[in-house]
Amino acid sequence: MTDSRTDVTANDLAGRLCDVVGPAGIITDPAEMAGYLTDWRRAYAGNAMAVVRPADTAEVAEVVRLCDQAGVAVVPQGGNTGMCGGAVPDSSGRQLVVSLTRMRRIRDIDVANQTITVDAGTILQSVQEAAAGVGKLFPLSLGAQGSCTIGGNVATNAGGTAVLRYGTMRDLTLGLEVVLADGRIWNGLRGLRKDNTGYDLKQFFIGAEGTLGIITAAVLKLFPAVRSRATAWIAIHTTQAAVDLIGVFRDVAGDRLTGFELMSRQSVEFVVRHSPGVRNPVDGQYSWFALVELSDALPDAGLDAVIELALERAVQHDLVAEAVVASSAAQSAALWALREGISEAQNHEGPSLKHDVTVPVSGIPEFVARTDAALDKVVPGIRIVTYGHVGDGNLHYNLSKPPGSDDDVFRARAADLAGVIYDQISTFNGSISAEHGLGQAKAGILADYKDSCELGLMHDIKTLLDPRGLMNPGKVLPATDYIRP
């Protein structure tokens, strides 16, 4: 490995990087780099001096040391499945993309400790399968689980459909290994549930989107495998009914309540229209739908009886218009297809302006009512595709143009429409990003919605850990706000 103690210039950096990762680990051909320079939605695109693909943590550390000495910014990248452009370089062509996709090792599975230790480039689905292979569960579940990586999941504090029971990646992560901005390696790969030895350093890097260092490995929690499941599709009239309904299910099912998804009629209509073979199992013209799932580690846990009891109580309180309980795994999968197909189905309706927000669960009904009305004033006839994990207050508040209107005219209103949503969010003490992160999409507006003291602390942490501003600049915080000489 190359000794990087001597000064490195940007001009000789490519050769030095090739010495570290080998010819197979560096890409400089523009055509071969193309897939690394735009996100999967093609909403963000940039350029780079090269893409490097280190094979292990030592190579990542050496790459970062060389970049630090040459003054070259580093953009960490996993599966590149993000929604906010957090893993895409800028347009200057002077940044280096560091792809972790060669680092896919399952380092250890400790069944007694209920942990799994994996490289950051490991695909989420591979972690799920490795856990299942020893009779355990890794509960993070995302639509992109076949291509997103654990490093990206940790860096964005991913949530998914089971947050209600298991929490986000912040809750699922026990330890990290991180390459710091100067190339040092912090080894915090401890699978401990209790460790009161000062600051919990891993929390700085979870959700930081690679702006403080590059996550190279993680120790993750495992849980007992799910052996019983019950799923229900429920038609409801109002968002207040949804909030009350989840309270009923919590009281009846306790921690067996794994998922509670809320979907507007508009979102379900899009899926039925554009997803072959998918249908709404109820016929009425209802305004909202809930998808509820219970799970248990016992093979015969009687969950159908539990879900029926909860529905009976909900009917008594006039919360349910109509309900269908899945009688097989295939029927359960068909119900989930209605939820999971929303994002793709909306793309067939023209430009999709996506917003990932959160408010306290109790505030959802008033937030939706106010925001829907405000948006319709800005763009009359706008189609609002609202869905999300209502149990944790997370709504995907996506917008489609009025039928027959011009795509470009609608896109031109994107900032105005986002401002309506985020201004409403601030009045409910919510967040402009629930689980997708900030990336480059929201970095520029963060100061409008963050407390000045909180934002100042974020700047201080960034300056301390990345004084030259070379770690994923322009993401989370505007680059000009924290670059130091």
Automatic annotation (TrEMBL):
Cofactor or coenzyme needed: FAD
Xref: PROSITE patterns: FAD_PCMH (PS51387)
Annotated signal peptide: none
GO biological process, alphabetically ordered: respiratory electron transport chain
Organism domain of life: Bacteria
Family stated for the protein in its record: Belongs to the FAD-binding oxidoreductase/transferase type 4 family.
Protein name: 2-hydroxyacid dehydrogenase
